[in-house]
Design goal:
Strand content of chain B: over 45%
Helix content of chain A: 40-55%
Radius of gyration of chain B: 20 Å
Order of helices and strands of chain B: EEEEEEEEEEEEEEEEEEEEEEEEEHEEE
Number of strands of chain A: 4
Strand content of chain A: 5-15%
Order of helices and strands of chain A: HHEEEHHEHH
Oligomer: heterodimer
Distance between the termini of chain B: 15 Å
Distance between the termini of chain A: 43 Å
Number of strands of chain B: 28
Number of helices of chain A: 6
Structural class of chain A: alpha+beta
Number of helices of chain B: 1
Largest interface: A-B, 39 and 55 residues
Radius of gyration of chain A: 19 Å
Shape of chain B: globular
Chain lengths: 169, 370
C-alpha cells in the first residue's frame, strides 16, 4: 500500500518535469493579449495531449499542457461519506484562498477535486523544481490531512456522545 | 571549456545582444524597456534605458557593421535605434502586423532585417533612402501558426523560419533595388516570398533555426526534445534527427560547420558535433554539474514525453522516489537566447554568450578542434 503512493508520485513528478517547459507566448487570437493557452482552448496546435495518471479508480491526476501554461487537476481518495464531506470542505477552503497560493485555480476542473494553473510567469519568478516539489508535497499531504481530520471528527464525536450520555447513567 | 564570466543583470532576461566591440550589452529585463550596460574595468554600469515599447521586448539585434539596434515587441511595433552622440534615437518601423512580433534578426549585409510574428507572417524590412524610413514587405499565407524564429542564410537572400505548426520553411527575400546589385543569377525562384522548401520533420513546435556558416546545413530544434539537421536544403535535402535525453532546446548556434551549441530548458548548453561523414551526434553538456542525473530519470522523462506527444514507449518503472536535486551550474532557469561573440581576426567562433530567465548573462569559451 505504501509502495504505490511512491510510484504514483514519481510518475507525476517526471511527467511534470517534462510538461513544465513553458515560455512567454502572446495570444494568436486577440492582439496585445497574453492568455494561458490551456484555459483558452481555441488553438489545438498549441495544446499538447493531456496525460491522465491513475493510482486506482478513486485517485487520479490529469495534466494538461500548452505552450505557456499547464493545468494539473487531481481527484483525492474519498473512501466514505465522511471523507467526501471533509475533502470537499477542506479543498473548497483552499480554493477560496487561491490568491495566496498563486498557482491554485479557484474552481477545480469538472470531475476533479482541485486544480492548479501554472503559467510561464510563475516559472520565471519561481524555480521549476520547487514548483514541482510543491505540487507533489501537496498531493502527499492532502491524504494525511484528510485522514487526520476524519480521526479528529470521530474522536470528538465519541467524546461528546460519552459526555452527553453520562447524564442518563 | 566552460563559463568564462557570469553576470547577474536582472530578475529575468528575455533576450540580449552585444555591441560590435563587445563592450556594451543590450537586454530586456522582462518588461517593455531595453537596458544597455557598459563594462568599465570590472564593473557593469547602466548607460541607457530605451523605453519606447508598450509591452515586453521579445527580440533585440545589434548590427555589427552599422551599429544599429533593432527591437521588436509584443505590442506589434519595431524600432531601429541609432546612436547619435550619447543618446539612442529611435525610428519607428511600420511593420503592418496585427499580432505580436516574436523575433528579429539583421541580415548578414545589414541592409534588411526579418521579423517573425504571431500573425503567422514574416516582415522583411529594408531602408528606403528617398523617404528616409524603413519599409516592410510581408510574407503571408504560408505559415499556419506563429513564427517563432528566423535565420538568414549567408547569401542575404534566403531566410529560414520555424513555427509553432512544427514546420521549418525556407523563403527567398529578394528585393529589387536592395539585392539587385549582389545577385549573380536571375533565376525564377528568386521572387520575393517564394517558398523554397518546407521541412516537416518535427511533429511539435519548432524553435531555434540557424544556418551553418557556409550556408550548407540548416538546424532547428523541436519541442519533443529533438534536434534536426538538414544538409543541402535547396537541391537535395537529406535530414538527420537526433533525440535528446533531457528537456527540449530553445535556441541554437553554429560554432563551425561541424559544431553546434544548443540551449534550452536544461539550463546547460549542449554540444553537438558532426564527424567526417557528416553524421551528427550529441557530444556533451558544457557545464560541470555537481549532481549527475541517474539514467533511470532519463528514461522516465522520455516516457513522459512520449505520452505527451501521443507515442508510447514501454519502460520499466522505478520504485525509488528522487527528490529534485538543486541544479548547480551557471544558469538556474531556462536559457532562452544564445549570441555569438566574434573575436577580431578570428574566422572560427569559440566564444558565445547565453541569457536566461534567471536574469544572468553567461559568457562561454570553447576550444574547437580544426
Amino acid at each position: 500500500m505504501a509502495n504505490t503512493i511512491r510510484l504514483y508520485l514519481t510518475c507525476i513528478r517526471n511527467t511534470l518535469e517534462a510538461a513544465m517547459c513553458l515560455q512567454n507566448f502572446p495570444c494568436q487570437e486577440v492582439e496585445r493579449h497574453n492568455k494561458p493557452e490551456v484555459e483558452l482552448n481555441t488553438s489545438p496546435g498549441l495544446i499538447m495531449n493531456p496525460v491522465l495518471i491513475c493510482r486506482n479508480e478513486a485517485e487520479k491526476c490529469l495534466i494538461e499542457t500548452s505552450i505557456n501554461s499547464i493545468r494539473i487537476s487531481m481527484k483525492v481518495k474519498q473512501a466514505d461519506e465522511l471523507e467526501n464531506i471533509l475533502a470537499k470542505k477542506f479543498l473548497r477552503f483552499l480554493s477560496m484562498r487561491a490568491e495566496a497560493f498563486q498557482v491554485l485555480r479557484r474552481k477545480p476542473v469538472q470531475g476533479y477535486d482541485i486544480s492548479f494553473l501554472i503559467t510561464n510567469y510563475h516559472c520565471e519568478e519561481m524555480h521549476k523544481h520547487k514548483l514541482i516539489d510543491f505540487i507533489v508535497q501537496f498531493m502527499e499531504d492532502i491524504d494525511k490531512e484528510i485522514s487526520e481530520l476524519k480521526l479528529s471528527v470521530n474522536t470528538r464525536g465519541r467524546l461528546v456522545a460519552t459526555e452527553f450520555l453520562k447524564q442518563f447513567i | 571549456m566552460a563559463a568564462v564570466a557570469v553576470h547577474q543583470f536582472a530578475e529575468c532576461i528575455t533576450c540580449h545582444a552585444w555591441s560590435p566591440d563587445q563592450s556594451m550589452v543590450a537586454f530586456c529585463p522582462n518588461n517593455s524597456e531595453v537596458h544597455i550596460y557598459k563594462l568599465f574595468g570590472e564593473k557593469w554600469e547602466k548607460m541607457h534605458v530605451l523605453s519606447k515599447h508598450d509591452q515586453i521586448v521579445c527580440g533585440i539585434d545589434w548590427s555589427l557593421k552599422s551599429n544599429k539596434l533593432v527591437t521588436v515587441s509584443h505590442d506589434r511595433n519595431s524600432y531601429v535605434w541609432s546612436q547619435e552622440g550619447t543618446e539612442w534615437v529611435p525610428t519607428l518601423v511600420i511593420l503592418r502586423l496585427n499580432r505580436a512580433a516574436l523575433c528579429v534578426q539583421w541580415s548578414p549585409k545589414e541592409n534588411k532585417f526579418a521579423v517573425g510574428s504571431g500573425a503567422k507572417s514574416i516582415c522583411i524590412c529594408y531602408y528606403e533612402q528617398e523617404n528616409n524610413w524603413w519599409v516592410s514587405k510581408l510574407i503571408r499565407k504560408k505559415h499556419e501558426s506563429s513564427v517563432t524564429n528566423v535565420a538568414w542564410h549567408p547569401d542575404n537572400i534566403l531566410l529560414a523560419t520555424t513555427s509553432t505548426d512544427g514546420k521549418c520553411r525556407v523563403f527567398s527575400t529578394y528585393i529589387k533595388g536592395v539585392d539587385s546589385k549582389e545577385s549573380e543569377s536571375s533565376s525564377s525562384d528568386l521572387k520575393f516570398g517564394e517558398q523554397i522548401a518546407q521541412l516537416d520533420l518535427s511533429v511539435t513546435w519548432a524553435f531555434g533555426v540557424r544556418w551553418s556558416p557556409s550556408g550548407s546545413i540548416l538546424a532547428y530544434a523541436g519541442h519533443n526534445s529533438m534536434i534536426h539537421f538538414i544538409d543541402d536544403v535547396k537541391s537535395n535535402p537529406s535530414a538527420q534527427s537526433i533525440p535528446l535525453r533531457d528537456l527540449p532546446l530553445r535556441d541554437l548556434l553554429f560554432l563551425s560547420d561541424r559544431v553546434v551549441v544548443g540551449v534550452g530548458f536544461d539550463c546547460n548548453p549542449m554540444i553537438f558535433t558532426a564527424d567526417d561523414t557528416g553524421l551528427w551526434s550529441f557530444t556533451k553538456f558544457l557545464d560541470q554539474r555537481k549532481a549527475a542525473p541517474s539514467s533511470s530519470r532519463g528514461s522516465q522523462l522520455s516516457e513522459a514525453f512520449g505520452k505527451l506527444y501521443g507515442t508510447s514507449k514501454q519502460v520499466p518503472s522505478n520504485d525509488t522516489v528522487e527528490p529534485s536535486k538543486p541544479r548547480g551550474g551557471a544558469h538556474e532557469n531556462c536559457i532562452t537566447c544564445i549570441v555569438p561573440l566574434w573575436k577580431r581576426g578570428n574566422t572560427t567562433l569559440c566564444r558565445f554568450s547565453t541569457s536566461g530567465l534567471d536574469g544572468k548573462v553567461v559568457i562561454w569559451e570553447l576550444d574547437i578542434p580544426k
